[in-house]
Amino acid sequence: MFSLFSDFFACRDNRFSRIDPRVKLVVATTAIICVILSTSVALPVAVFLLSVVTTLALRIPVRLVALRLAAPLGIVAVLALLQSFTSGSTPLWSVPLGAWTLTATREGVHAAALTASRVCGAVSVVLLLSLVTPAHRIFHALRWFHVPQGWVEIAMLMYRYTFTLLDLTADLTAAQQLRMGYAGAGRALSSMGAVCGTVIIRSVDQAIRTHEAMVLRGYRQQIPFGPMPPLVAQDCCVTGLAVVALLLLYAAVGRAA
Amino acid sequence: MTRSRVSLLAPVALLLFAFPPPASAMHISEGILPAPWAALWFVLSVPFLIWGLHDLRVRSEREPMFKSLVGLVGAAVFVISCMPIPVPTAGTCSHPCATGMAAILIGPALTVVITSIALLLQALFLAHGGLTTLGADIVSMGVAGAFAGYGVFRLATTLGVSRWPAAFLAGLLSDWATYAITSFELASALHGNASLGQTFLAIAVAFCPTQIPLGILEGIVTAAACRFIEKRRPGLIASLNQPHGGVA
Amino acid sequence: MKRNGLAIEAADVSFAYQEGTLALTDVDFRANYGEFIAMLASNGSGKTTLIKTLVRLLKPQKGIVRVAGREIGSYPQAELYQTVGLVFQNPNDQIFGATVEEDVAFGPRNLSLAESEVQQRITDALKAVAAAHLRERAIHHLSFGEQKRVAIAGVLAMKPSILILDEPTAGLDPAGEGMIMRLLHRLNRQQGITVILATHSVDLLPLFADRIYLLNRGRVLREGPSREIFCDRDLIAQASLRLPYVSHLLDDLNRLDGVPIEGMPLTLGEARTQLLKLIPDEVIVKPPAKEQR
Predict the structure, then answer these.
(1) Strand C62-67 vs strand C84-87: parallel, antiparallel, or unpaired?
(2) Can you give the pLDDT at residue B8?
(3) C-alpha separations of A111 from A150, B151, B191, B192, C89 in Å
C-alpha cells in the first residue's frame, strides 16, 4: 500500500513527462469526457488500448499498471454483475441457482459492458497522466487554471507531508508489530487508534514548526507561486491536435449505432 | 416480481462467497458515472468547497498558522485513510474514510476541502476514484461523511456524552453516510430501466458485508484515537475545534 | 558584508515557558560580524530556546536582543529575516516545497524579487551547499544529508548576514558531518557570513569555531575560544559533554601515565605533532616518500 503511493515514475525523464502539465491536463480531461459521453464500447476500448500501450512503451512495469487497475476493476465487476441481471427485459441466458433462476438480459449485459469499458478507458488515461506528471507540476498548473490559492496551498502542504507522515506511520506500526501490538483484534484496534492519535498529534506539532520556519523566510499568508513557463506554439499545437483527434474519434465511433 | 427479488439476492450471494468487494469500494471509479450525473455532483459539491475555503480564510486571519495546521492535519487524515483495516466478514482489508476524525478536528466545511484534495491525490496516484467522479466522491465522502460525523459528534457532546463515545458515533455514522450516499449515486446513474429503489438496495446490500463492519471498526479506531489524544494532549481537540481555531 | 562590531547580541536574557519551565537564565550571548560561533550544550540545556529568541520566534521575559545594534522588536519582518536566517534541526520542519527548486525559491519569492533574481539566488544558494545537481529533485527522494543541505540553501537564498543553525550535523554520517562543517566554514570565511551553530558534537569544533559558548541548564557556563573552553575537563563534564576523543586520550596519557603532554591538543594535527615530539626518532620507520602527505 505504502510503496504503491509513489511518484517515482512521474519524476523520470521521458518524452511524455517533458510535455507541459497544462497540455496534459487538458488532453486527459477531454479524453475522459469523450469516454464517459461515449455510448458505444469502441471508443473507450480504443482509448484504453492507446493509453495502456503508451504506458507500457514508457517502460512502466506491467505489475504496477495491473495493480493500479485492479481496484477499479473490482468495483466494475460487482456493478457489471448487478447491471446484467437487474436491468433490461430481453432474456439472454439463464443460470439456475438452487431454487432460483438468474436471467441476464441483453440490455443489462450491454449496459454492463459499456460501464466496464468506460471505467477501463478513463482509469487508464488518469493512470498515464499520473505516471508522467509529478504532483507538484499538476498543482502549479491548477494554480494557472485559477483554482483558488487556499486550496492549492493546502494541497501542496498535504502532498509534501504525506510522505513524512507515511514514514512515521510505517515506523510506528512496525514498532507496535514487533511488540505484539497486532496480536488479536482488540489489541490491533487499540494499536491502530494509538497510531492515528500519534500521527495527528505529530501533525499538529509539525504544523507549528513548519509555520515558524515559513515565517522566518518571509511568509505572508500566501505561498508565492513562480511563473509558469509560457506556452509555446508547439504546446498549443499538440493540445489542439490531440483534442481534435479525440473529438473526431468520438464522432466516428463514440455513438452506438 | 419474483424475478426482481431473485436478481437482487443472487449477485449478493455470488459476491459473498466468491468475490469479496474490493478494498476501496466506496470511491466511485473514473468512468462509472455518465457525464450529466458527474456534472450534477460537481455542481452540488462546489458550494461546500466555497464554504470550506471561506472558513479557511476567516480562521487564518485570526490564527496565522491555521493554513499549515489544516494542511498538516489534512496530511495526517489522508495517511490514516490509507491504513488498511482488516474486515473479517469480507476477508480483505479495507480503508477507513477518516472523515469523521477530520470533522472532529477541523470542522466539517474544511473537511470537505481536505477530502477533495485527498481524493484528487488518490485518483492520480492510486487510481482510486477519478477526475470526473471527483464531484460525486466529494459529496459522498466529504460532504455526507463530514457533516454526518460532525453533526452526531456535536449532538452527542451537547447531550453530555463524553468525547470518545461521541467520536465512536462520528466515525461510525460518517462511514455509513458515505456508504449510503455512494450507493445512491451509483444507483441513480446506473439503474437503467430498473427501479431506482431496487438498484439502490441491490448495491447497498452488495457492499454491506464490507461496509457495515467497516463502519463499526472505523468508529472504534476513531474513538481510540480520540482517547489517545485526550490522554496525551488534553485540550488539543477542544482547542482545534473552536470556531476561531487555534492551538492552545 | 564585512563590518565591524556586534552582529547579534542577547543581553541578560531570561525566558520561561508558560508551564513554568525556566529555559534561559540571565544569558549573555554576543557574536561579532564574521565570527564562527558554536553554542555547545547537551540536550535540554536551552540552546533551541536561545536560538528562537535570536530570531524573534520567542520574546524573552527579561533582557534584550539586538541585531546589528538595533532592538530586535523594531525590525520589520522582511528586514529582520534578510539579516538573520535560521536553519532548523529537522529539515522536515523547514522544507515544505515539493521540489528542491520550489522550496529554495520560497524565500526570494516572498520578497517579491524579480524572477531572474529569484533564479539567480536559487543557483547561488544551491551551489554554496554543493547541491546544484539536486535542483529538480523531489524532496522525498533526497537522502537525509541532502535534505539538510537543501534546508541550508533555502535560508541562504534570503541572503542573511547572520546564519544560525540548530544542530546542523545531528543524525549525519561522519562524511556528511565533515561536509556540512566545511561548507559552513567556507560560507563564513569566503562570504563573510556570521555563523552561529548549536551542537553537542565536540570533535570537529576546535577546527572551525572561533569562539564557543558553553551552556548548561539555561545558563552560560563559560565563553571563549575552544582552547580555553576545552582546557577545563571538569567544567566540560559538568555540562554533560566530553572532550574531543583525541584530547581525552592525550589528557589521560598525561594525567594517568605521566606522559609529558603540553597543554591540551584539540585536533588530530596538534596531537600528532605532540606525539612525534615524544617518540624517539630511532623507533620511527619512515614510510616511502610518495605516500607522505
Answers:
(1) unpaired
(2) 47
(3) 41, 38, 10, 8, 58
Q: Are residues C28 and C159 in the same domain?
A: yes
Structurally, how many domains does chain C consist of?
2
Q: What are the structural domains, with CATH classification, of chain B?
A: 8-14+22-241 (1.10.1760.20)
Residues of A near C (Cβ–Cβ under 8 Å) read: 7-8, 11, 134-136, 139, 156-157, 159-161, 163-164, 206, 209-210, 212-220, 223-227
Looking at the structure, do residues C125 and C197 belong to the same domain, yes or no?
yes
CATH number, domain with residue C58: 3.40.50.300
For residues C276 and C222, membership in a common domain is answered with no
Question: With contacts defined as CB-CB under 8 Å, which chain B residues touch A104?
Answer: none
Same domain, C273 and C187: no
Mean pLDDT of chain A: 84
Contact B30 A32 (CB under 8 A): yes
Boundaries of domain holding C206: 6-242
- CB contact under 8 Å between A160 and C98, yes or no, is yes
Chain C interface with A: residues with Cβ < 8 Å: 55, 57, 77-78, 81-82, 85-86, 88, 90, 92-99, 102, 105-107, 109-112, 115, 118, 137-141, 154-155, 158
Full-model pTM? 0.81
| Chain A residue at shortest CA distance from B200 | A82
Does C268 map to a domain?
yes
Q: Pull the grid cell for residue B213.
A: 463492519
Is C262 found in the same domain as C188?
no
Taking chain C, what is the end-to-end CA distance rounded to the nearest angstrom? 36
**Section A134-140 average pLDDT:** 87
Question: What are the φ and ψ backbone dihedral angles of B187, each rounded to 5 degrees?
Answer: -65, -45
**Interatomic CA distance for residues C278 and C258, integer angstroms:** 12
Residues of A in contact with C81 (CB under 8 A): 215-218
**Does B32 contact A119 at a Cβ distance shorter than 8 Å?**
yes
Question: Which residue of A6, A159, A160 to mutate against C (max C Cβ within 10 Å)?
Answer: A160
Indicate the SS3 state at residue B230.
helix
CB contact under 8 Å between A126 and B30, yes or no, is yes
Structure confidence by residue, pLDDT tens digits, A157-203: 999 898 889 888 888 888 787 777 787 777 888 888 888 999 999 99
Distance from the Cα of A97 to chain C's closest Cα (Å) equals 53
pLDDT in tens, chain B (248 residues): 344 444 444 444 444 444 444 444 567 888 888 888 999 999 999 999 999 999 999 999 888 889 999 999 999 999 988 887 777 665 666 778 889 999 999 999 999 999 999 999 888 877 778 888 899 999 999 999 999 999 999 999 999 888 889 999 999 999 999 989 988 998 888 777 778 888 888 888 877 878 888 899 999 999 999 988 888 888 888 777 665 444 43
Where are the alpha helices (H) located in B65-145, listed in sequence order?
66-81, 99-106, 108-126, 134-137
> What's the CA gap between B233 and C67, in Å, rounded?
36
| Confidence bin at C84 (pLDDT 50/70/90) | very high
Residue B106, exposed/middle/buried by CB under 10 A (0-12, 13-18, 19+)? buried
Point out the residue among C57, C86, C98 whose CB comes nearest to the CB of A135: C98
- Residue-wise pLDDT for B82-101, tens only, equals 887 777 665 666 778 889 99
**With contacts defined as CB-CB under 8 Å, which chain B residues touch A102?**
6-7, 10
Chain B, residues 178-207, CB within 8 A of chain A, namely 186, 190-194, 198-199, 202-203, 206-207
